[in-house]
Amino acid sequence: MTDAPANDAEPTEEDVFEQKAVRLAKRERLLEERSDAAGGPYPVFVPVTDTIPSLRERYADLEAGDETGVTAGVAGRVVFSRNTGKLCFASLQSGDGSRIQAMVSLANVGDESLQAWKELVDLGDHVFVSGEVISSRRGELSIMVSEWAIAAKAVLPLPNMYSELNEESRVRSRFLDLIVRDRARETVLARAKVNASLRRTFADRAFVEVETPMLQVQHGGASARPFITHSNAFDADLYLRIAPELFLKRAVVGGIDRVFEINRNFRNEGADSTHSPEFAMLEAYQAYTDYNGIADLTQTLIQDAAIAVAGSTTVTWADGTEYDLGGEWDRISMYDSLSEAAGRTITPETTLEDLRAFGAEAGVGAPAHETHGKWVEELWEHFVKGGLTRPTFVMDFPLDTSPLVREHRSIAGVVEKWDLYVRGFELATGYSELVDPVIQRERFTEQAKLAARGDDEAMPIDEEFLRALEHGMPPTGGMGMGIDRLLMAITGLGIRETILFPLVK
Questions:
Q1: Dihedral of CA 470/471/474/476: which sign?
Q2: pLDDT digit string, tens, across residues 196-233
Q3: What is the residue-wise DSSP string for 337-363?
Q4: Is the C-alpha dihedral spanning 121, 124, 129, 132 positive or negative?
Q5: Rounded to two decimals, what is the model's pTM?
């Protein structure tokens, strides 16, 4: 507790309008009275000597009433304030949420400065204070102010610091969310820790980080609908990438045997609790391994990231639920798990007609542009997906839904692909990559036929990629994982909470 509780009344629109007018008047006054370089409502510099977090760490053991004899100059945002006759209190907050109390007394600053504080300082303002570091009589780490200055005048009031912003307000005004809510700041820091952990794990395994184009002359690397834009310089339509896969594989062809990228993808599709049109993606490729080796790597990447954020592979979600990401994760067959859950045998030889009939019987809606593989995946999601609790690799997918994946070495009609499910959603996918340029051309040709029949997610024939494959690509395992979804798995939050500034309508 600070010595200065805040007013917790939520301002109305009329209040906000009136407060803005009052604050703008204070801004004008500051411009008139403090127009020198060190003053005014927006000075270019304030003489900060310490940060609020560093003072809290240094004087964590200070007891109530203690004085240090040490002078410090700090700056922060005023988030609580109480003005009394001869002594004013304010709680200053730093960017990480740490706070320190400022005590502005008549005895230390004089009547004119105290009166100016009362008249000019509002909640939300950034202020600089300098003075002795003490502990108040209530045990609050404080600055006994000897001088102060406005560091940035806020002309709009803060929202109520005691009540939660609703989700819509949080995502539309993330800057306010970061000011008022600890969880918002913690999520930003968690994301930074996850990215740093991923890069460390890759570096330990001699992977090279690269960047590939986001603007592409044709889309590819995944089954998804692209965004289209136009280049005036080239007078050509371009696509925002849906995946970096085809360029990263070119790098493997060129001899970068272990390569990864963390960057943005764009898919012109629906938005919900697990999907965003713009999202952060990790893709990695390792020569001379397969989808089993890349599954091992993916498990390590995620477990290392969990430890970086939570200190353990057991993470605590936002609702208080604990989730265990540790140990060896289950690996199940898509066809076998579907057959077991559905109570009938379904194999790669099961006809489209039989799948369609079984789907109607089970109440499963037909997928767009029906194929054997799309029906199998729809049925699997209906019968199996909801029952997965532990992190699980779902192995061996239908061939016709995976045009960039090598056929299974021993099971006809399937490919060496897995999807990783965590927390009930798909977190990552991995392949034994298709490196035969002749078969890859055949797969692209089949995709082109689907596109001609109206499938917006089908891939076009990429001649430049095929030319790279024709120069020889080694046996390779590859994986892709959404960074936003990885944060979801670790924090238990929805996708719009894990993205700092999500796209909103």
A1: negative
A2: 999 999 999 999 999 999 999 888 777 788 999 999 99
A3: HHHHHHTS---TTS-HHHHHHHHHHHT
A4: positive
A5: 0.89
